[in-house]
Amino acid sequence: MAAATVKQRAGGSRAQLPPCYYEGYLEKRGPKEKVSHRLWTCLCGNALYFFNNTKDTHYMEKLDLSGFISLADDCSRDRNLEAARLSLRLKDGETKLTAPNLEARELWKGFLYAVVDLSVPSTLTLLPGQLLMLKEVVEKEKHRRKARSLSRAPSSPLSLPLVGEIPPCFRPVSRVEAEVLLERYPDCGNMLLRPGRDGTSLAVTTRQDLNGSVFRHYRVTQKQQGGYVIDVENPIPCETLYDVINALMEKTSGTLQPFLLEEPYEENITFVSSNDENGERTLHCVRGGTPLRGPALPPKQGTEKWSPRHQGLSQSPSQSPSPRSFSPTDTPLSPMKRLTLSPSPLAQSFTDELKMKLEKRQRANQE
Question: Is the whole-model pTM more than 0.85?
Answer without folding.
Answer: no
